[in-house]
Amino acid sequence: MQYTVDQRGYYGEFGGAFIPEMLYPNVAELRNLYIDLIYDESFQKEFQALLKDYVGRPSPLFLAKRLSKHYNTNIFLKREDLNHTGAHKINNTIGQILVAKRLGKKRIIAETGAGQHGVATATVCALMGIECIVYMGAIDIERQAPNVSRMRMLGAKVVPANSGSKTLKDATNEAIRDWINNPEDTHYIIGSVVGPHPYPDMVARFQSVISEEMKWQLKEQTGSENPSMIIACVGGGSNAAGAFYHYMENKEVRLVAVEAAGMGIHSGESAATSVLGTKGIIHGSRTLLMQTEDGQIIEPYSLSAGLDYPGIGPLHAHLIDTGRAEAVSITDDEALKAAYFLSKQEGIIPALESAHAFAALDKIKYSSEDIIVINLSGRGDKDLATYIKHFENYG
Ligand SMILES: *Cc1c(COP(=O)(O)O)cnc(C)c1O
Predict the structure, then answer these.
(1) Is the residue at 212 inside a domain?
(2) Among residues 59, 68, 89, 326, which one is catalytic?
(3) Same domain as 343, residue 354
(4) Which of 203, 231, 250 marks a domain boundary?
(5) Ligand 1 mean position, distance from CA 38 (Å)
(6) Is 377 a catalytic residue?
(7) What spacing in Å lies between the alpha carbon of 236 and ligand 1's midpoint?
(8) Ligand 1: which atom is nearest the Cα of residue 117?
(9) Looking at the structure, do residues 188 and 316 belong to the same domain, yes or no?
(10) Residue 343 covered by a domain
């Protein structure tokens, strides 16, 4: 079984590039050049140097002793929360800004929901001195004021999307419209392993540094580069893709993909795509998504903005569909509980998204001999207001 992308841009029956004709030239340029570009020696030199000195990589692999004792197993945390800007997203935006530079692009556009990808994009644009326009739903601009301020301070222009539900999908539509109108000078930085081929593969390759480091870090600390299991949360799936990447072909390593069940899988307020999703096309690729019988996208819900997405990337659809990855769904309540627990056990306040991965420890089977790696995708600073609102119940 092949888990990486094939020649046609597919993962099994998922993936592809379903895009309006007007976008063909932009996507074809990227598809034809991305592999040669990113494995070019000078690209790798610049990419690795920035990951080291700007992002702060390698991110540590930390043996969480109190957590391990509580669960009677061996739990390591891959500390993506310690990266510059506080999450894994910067690995991808660094990679893509270098691609944009080499393609001679003068202008960067991005879409953002909660603002995390917008901030990571605005950051690398400031670093490179390139113009940055971030499309964001008008409602999200109100809900996510601190991240809007960050993007503006970094010099980005935040443009409200006022159509439809004024959230992420409307921002995405605006970004695509912009790209169609500015094909020559603009690169569109997508923030997860979603979108038309080659985006899912390109983003997975940039994030794969996570599992590349895990291998030698585990070897150093345990004597073997293979853990028993890797657990990661999945919104679109980029942090999970990075954490799984170098282990996908090794069946001895269990891969656990954790998605958000919101108020409960069947509550009508959920983002549990692996359970509720059916095959269809969203944002340019064929994958699993939450849709009505006549193909209308169902509004997802999760307390964590990063997991509040109605689909999953085609790689994860394939991993789950073939049984290579196990899917676990975690409610808001379970994630909040896990976030408070980790904070008190290890002195680490996780992002609400990452807290979903920790809650999975209560849902899956493992033994006391197992080596478990949890990908701690981001830190919780951005979620403090949400956490403290629930202090009565969990603190
Ligand atoms: C954006 C985000 C996620 C979800 O995105 P993926 O592409 O699924 O990784 C998870 N954790 C954090 C901290 C995020 O910012």
Answers:
(1) yes
(2) 89
(3) yes
(4) 203
(5) 23
(6) yes
(7) 7
(8) 1
(9) no
(10) yes
Q: How much is the average pLDDT of 373-389?
A: 96
**Is the pTM higher than 0.90?**
yes
Whether residue 203 has pLDDT greater than 90: yes
Tell me whether residue 252 is one of the annotated catalytic residues: no
Count CA atoms within 13 Å of residue 126 on its CB side. Answer: 16
Please write the tens of the pLDDT for every residue from 295-307: 999 989 999 989 9
Amino acid at 7: Q
The closest alpha carbon to 363, from 257, 245, 271, belongs to 257
Ligand 1 atom nearest the C-alpha of 207 is 9
* pLDDT number for residue 169: 84
Q: Which pLDDT score, from 0 to 100, does residue 89 have?
A: 98
The reply to whether 154 falls in a domain is yes
Q: Annotated catalytic, 111?
A: yes
The sheet carrying 186-188 orders its strands as 157-161, 131-137, 107-112, 186-188
Q: Give me the domain span that covers residue 103.
A: 11-50+89-203
pLDDT at 168: 87
Domain count, the chain: 2
pLDDT given for residue 109 in this prediction: 98
In this structure, the answer to whether residues 221 and 327 fall within a common structural domain is yes
Same domain? 26 vs 94: yes
The pLDDT of residue 395 is above 90:
no
- How far, in Å, is the centroid of ligand 1 from the Cα of 353? 6
Q: Whose CA is nearest to atom 13 of ligand 1?
A: 378
Read off the pLDDT of residues 178-188 as tens digits, 9 standing for 90 and up: 999 998 999 99
Q: How confident is the model at residue 165 (pLDDT cuts 50, 70, 90)?
A: confident
Domain boundary among 172, 203, 234: 203
**Are residue 139 and residue 281 in the same domain, yes or no?**
no
Is residue 79 located within the same domain as residue 96?
no
Q: Which residues' Cβ are closer than 6 Å to ligand 1?
A: 87, 89, 116, 192, 233-239, 306-307, 351, 353-354, 377-378
- Give the CATH number for residue 293: 3.40.50.1100
